[in-house]
Structures are given as structure tokens and as C-alpha cells.
Specification:
- There is one protein chain.
- This protein is of the alpha/beta class and 325 residues long.
- The chain folds into two domains: 220 residues, 3-Layer(aba) Sandwich (Rossmann fold), CATH 3.40.50; 67 residues, Alpha-Beta Plaits (2-Layer Sandwich).
- It has eleven helices and 14 strands.
- Strand 1 and strand 2 form a beta hairpin.
- The C terminus is likely disordered.
- Keywords: ATP-binding, Cell inner membrane, Cell membrane, Membrane, Nucleotide-binding, Transport.
Length: 325
Amino acid sequence: MQTILSIENLSKAYATGFRALKNVSLEIHRGEIFALLGPNGAGKTTLISIICGIVNASEGRVRVDGHDIVTDFRKARSLIGLVPQELTTDAFETVWATVSFSRGLFGKPANPAYIERVLRDLSLWEKRDSKIVTLSGGMKRRVLIAKALSHEPQVLFLDEPTAGVDVELRRDMWKLVRGLKANGVTIILTTHYIDEAEEMADRIGVINAGEIMLVERKDALMRKLGRKQLTLQLEAPLSAIPPALAHWHLELGAGGTALTYTYDAENERNDIITLLKSLSDAGIGFTDLQTSQSSLEDIFVSLVGKDAAAEAKATQNDNGPVTSS
């Protein structure tokens, strides 16, 4: 696939000696939705800030559609839209004025029809003449998205875009994201809502302590790192697992009436057939069976550790959907 964003050996070190990024290399494909996951302090926002020209890198190179963000910054920056975490807007401007002004900052000619379409897509059209200071937090978030889209970027960064917003905005935004992708826009998403990444992303990247730990297609990641469980409801309870089945590492539960087998998703068919034959040979019958697969959140926990994942989960809960829109 064609690369639209190329990151080579990118590092960021501060005067204190803290290294926020450590030799990050990453390629983002044109037209994909890429989810960058990581606990608080992992380096997600630092990486985005460097690409968008907000923070200077200590080392490395970034190119957007072939344009270097340092030596050809005007062209590179014109291709990027950013929806930041913070609700920073022009409080006393109207919605229409601030979105139109953002378009003009990139040298784009006035296009009222396009601005209207963006505002309608984000349910902002009825608020177009309202001053931003009068809007709810959810509506202000919509304005940030509209501003990021105002100059028709080819790469859109969404940095925790649904933190602290209502369900309606989340639904509207993901509908808009799918439409942008259909039109060839590349989306880079950071989120604490891992279920969103699991639903929306084509590829997943995991960053921790400033280093990229993994980059993989979502479906391949689920196959490679996902775990499945097979639970068998037994015809008769067992007091213990027979020694002949010890190598299967089965778990006995529900008062001896259920056996659970955990296995790699890639080895599903052969493992289950062999296990069921072994159970039959041991004289163990069952009345029902169920399978379940680990989620992307389970994989995230296994990669970054329980403490970091718990912190991310706590942030998700703190910033959960609110009622304002």
C-alpha cells in the first residue's frame, strides 16, 4: 500500500534528560484508519505534536506525502488536520467565523458550500451563528473537529477525540470518519476507548515508554495474539482432571461440571479435534460447549502490563460520556 506518512528514527529528549520518544519508526498507509494505543505518558501526544509542527524533534525525520515537516513545513502542514485533546477555541467568535477562518489560515479559498457540509455532518449547522462561549462541551468538541476539517486535509489526527463527550457525538464522529476514509482521507486515532479502536481501525500500533512495541493489522493481531477459550459443560461432575489430560492444562470449574481450555486462535481446528478425542478416550462426555475470544483490550493488557492498562481504563472512566452535546 502507498505510504502517506513516514516516520524515521524519531526521538524527543528534554533538558531534564527525559526521553519522551525513542527511535520511533512508523509508516502510515494512505486511506487507512490507524489506532495508536498506549497508557498515559506513553508518548502518543508527543508523537502527534511533532508531526503537526507543535513540538520539535530531537532526532529523526517525518515526511507527509513526501514533504519533510521541517524543510517543507508549509506543504506538509497543509495536508494535516488535528483535533487536539484540549478544548481550545476562539470563545467570542461564531462557529461559522472560526471554522471559515481556520480554512483561510491554510491559504484555501472561501468555500461556503464545503463549510456548510462539514457543519451539517457534525450537527453544528443550527449553531453556526452562535458564539463558541455559549456552547456546551460536546458542541465545542464538534467545533474542533470542524476546524480540523476546514482545509480539507489528507491526514487527520484525532487525539482522544471522544474523551468526555456524549454518545450522540461519538456516533456522529465515527460516521464522519467512515465517510472521510471512503474519500481517501487517512485517519490516525489515539484513544482510551479500546473498543473504538477494535471497531474502527484497520491497523493497530502500541506505544509504551516512548517506544513502538507493535504494529499490526487488526485482524492479524487478533489471530496472532488473541486467545480463545473453549468451555465444556460435562455430563457428570469430575472431582479432578484425569492425569491423561494433564498436558492440556484444563481448568475445572462450576463445582466440577465445566472444563475450560485456553488455546491460540491460530491453532483452533486441530487442537479442538484432538482435545475432544482425548476426552472421549478418557470417558468424559459433555452436554454443551461454548467458545470465547480475547478482546483487543486483553491483548493491550498483555503488552503494556496490568498497571498501565488499569491507568488507561481509569482515564476512560473519568472521561466517560457525559450528557452535554
